[in-house]
């Protein structure tokens, strides 16, 4: 191996930053995706723009050879303009996180939605690998979807595609904080499962607690079964309208594995009388998906295909 | 104008064929989309393949200068291989309608799904014009959708995208002929509206008859309102998951105009508490959409951009 090649394998070429309400996680990777440097800082919601500016200066001072920066955020992200349109818990609206990180360095940047970037990463390195189309669905406090169609992530006309947490799976059902009724996440998010069990029993044991009570507590069984039914209804809607090759279920609740996925598959099969269901699998990258997605955006920002050759 | 240019404006350059259960409609158009020749023959479901072979010979003998042929069919169409996978009322499964029409002429062909081709046409010449993304929904005996996303029609992993007639808008609702329950088209197709009114009153007046009774017959009002609610629920699902810029409602039932679209818009607004609804407009091409779509496929088969300059 020539000295120059060896250097390019160990130098930080791509930087990925995952901005969340709790922390800002970043990673610098070499051309082949290996981690060269990484870190995490607590988010200061009111001054997160200034945090990104400082973080960009810090990373660029350590890694002079960076060729691209990707950054992913929650909320509504204008991925064309690289601008945050709306973010619930962070003072980011109107800001351009990519420019804050790049400063006046001229390094190419790309800004993405955290959920879609996680889907992008699952497609490159995880459970979506090899699928021409798939829908990645992280289930945690809320539920969203990243639609990988026709070779790319589809963000929607108003950058709001994938807000499936608020689809009316049970019309005129239980009220949701969003102002609508019968929303998927009322029944099937970790928060929804915990809330519905607490409403029935007076005990707040969390979604994990409900999972532990399955088979021993009929009320836990019922709450869990309703969550699976709600999820299967949404997957049926997506199957019939979008027809993806695969569903990839992620987020905290996916740690339940087949305890969740088996009843979802079974309900989905029952809802699709005349066609086969797409496969329903668990995500593989966990919390790392966002940073991997941000790194892939960094490579894409520079017009590179490095990210297509990465493996974990 | 040079003689050659004048000739190319009047010669048949593109041929579009729309294969349906009742009739096969075709049109030959010049480079600028003007009709040069057209026709319609009754479908013979059991020998439709042979019909297409004869029709191809006939058209090619009349128009020696044809440069591309597009053909659209109902059912499940493998648009990559140009092959019919499944068609309910026509003996077409396994056949390649494009090759039947082209014979040994070597003329480039492209085969499409009739609903998606109609959507393609509405995007080029009709109610989808100018939208970066839209969903076209023809409502007749059944209900389907054509998803125009990211610059093209999305057909799905198994060429079954857009089967929204069988989405479970009312979980565990009324049974559908497909074997599922609560399907959209049970409530909101022309057939479903007629059937539900007949079930309530014993009178089969058709969907048009139910429309005429609105305001005078509370049962007609109720059936119509439920259809609008079912449609709005499906549009809410599509808005939140796919986020299109526009909905284009076509098919026979769309002739009801705002009698249908106004309550659908109002229900959709009510279902979307926290975001604006996409616009909901009526299709413009009517029954001609299929043939226009087939003509566009003919132009695309030859790698031409003629179709991008057509107007009605």
List keywords for this structure.
homodimer; 312 residues; alpha/beta; five-stranded mixed sheet; 12 strands
Secondary structure: elements and pairs:
2 copies of one chain form a homodimer.
Chain A: H1 3-10, E1 14-19, E2 23-29, E3 35-42, H2 48-62, E4 68-73, E5 76-78, E6 83-86, H3 97-102, E7 109-113, H4 114-125, E8 134-138, E9 146-149, E10 152-154, H5 184-188, H6 190-201, H7 206-212, H8 218-242, E11 246-250, H9 258-271, E12 279-282, H10 289-301
Helix pairs in contact in A: 4-10, 6-7, 6-8, 8-9
Mean pLDDT score of chain A: 94
Give the beta-strand count of chain A: 12
Radius of gyration of chain A: 20 Å
What are the low-pLDDT stretches of chain A, counting only 5+ consecutive residues below 50?
A: none
Order of helices and strands of chain A: HEEEHEEEHEHEEEHHHHEHEH
Tell me the greatest interface: A-B, 45 and 46 residues
- Major sheet attributes of chain A: 5 strands, mixed
Q: How many individual helices of chain A? A: 10
Describe the strand arrangement of the main beta sheet of chain A, using strand numbers.
Answer: 3-2-1-4-7
Intertermini distance of chain A: 22 Å
Oligomer: homodimer
Structural class of chain A: alpha/beta
Q: Shape of chain A from CA axes?
A: globular
Q: Portion of residues in helices of chain A?
A: 25-40%
Measured by DSSP, the beta-strand proportion of chain A falls in 15-25%
